[in-house]
Fold this sequence. Notes:
By secondary structure, the chain is α+β, with helices and mostly antiparallel strands. The chain is built from six helices and four strands, in the order ααααβαββαβ.
Amino acid sequence: MLYNRIFLAQMNLIDALDRIIVEHLAFDGRSSMQDLSDLTGLSRSAVFARVKRLESDGVIQGYTVKLDRKKMGLEIKAFCNVNLKLHERVALEEFEQDIGGFREVKACYHLTGSSDYMLEVHVADMDSYHKFITRKLAAMDNIAQVKSMFVMNDII
């Protein structure tokens, strides 16, 4: 058993109990050690040790709060497909660095296919979205094209 644990750790893999813990925490990050203990059959101290190891190994990278964007005054959620003019490593890194500084951007994905990046953008209203596109995103030197899609309803 110890050999398997060492091998898994060296391979940067997690075992079945770790996966149960991680998947449950991804669903409910406020779960208690007792909840996880009941779920896995491990003692609270064993669960605590696993959670701490998963955090230190970088499997668990943090805990977040899911917000109701509309109650936060963010009525518009849009996905922007972005194409860049230049695709050299430095240009990609510069775009990724710059886009991380825009508070409107909640997520950024580097893609394959017809778009280089997809952004998830949350703003108060269409005027705010227009300002984001014209004053921030389209104002970046390396932007070739932006196509926007607006969320009509959040399902999950």
